[in-house]
Request: fold
Amino acid sequence: MKALPDNKTSPATVAMLQVHRARMRLIWRVLLSALVTAMLVACASGPRSSFKVRDPNGFAQTRAQNLSLRTANGQAFAVSAPVDKAALTVGVLFGPIGGMIGAATTAARMQKRGAELMSEFDLSDPAKAIAHQLRERLAANHPNTPLVDGVWIEIRTSNWTLANNELLYSSQFTLQQRGENKPIASGNCYYASGKPKATDHPTEFLLTDNAAPLKALFTTAATHCASYVAEQLFGQRIAGAR
Reply:
């Protein structure tokens, strides 16, 4: 009697399936990020800032100490254009998959415009300015005090979009401790510059004087979020915050 074929999957096939699944997870994460960005552009009002202490004992011990600051790679700068809304609408007409593909295509175009402006006008991620302002606040609070080893604050930009001449900015911040899987505390800061009148802030104006008006929006967003983080972590606000 002929033996039945072995139904066990070969190691090569298992490895190929794992690679395929990993690629699909990455694609869906990119599409989801693109959809969130597109929704923020379509909707003028974004989420509110939030903060949560996850380890009360650790938070009580570290919040009054001199901590180091880190910035993580965040979301790319994106700039919307009138054509983006039409592209999203057409994508949605083809169902959920069409909507996701339309959002991903739109996000790629927006990020391409953002990259061009960053290169032309030497723009920087506001997360760096947030970290700088927090570092200055900590230095003022703890003069001549060494940094605490193994505990740090991490800042990451999660959305950075110029839509209809309005800046929509959000960042994530965490109070981390070496060797711990979860942060001591974490939160999100959201900032919207406000939707200006069409004649007040046309794109041409934002890019005048080496994009000084646009850079001013970034500075305001950074000061707003630095003040929010400082208030949550140190119980202090930063002067000049909106």
Residues 1-5, 41-45, 90-94 have pLDDT under 50 and may be disordered. The longest helix spans residues 11-42. Strands lie at 50-53, 68-72, 78-79, 151-163, 166-177, 185-192. The chain is about 50% helix and 20% strand.
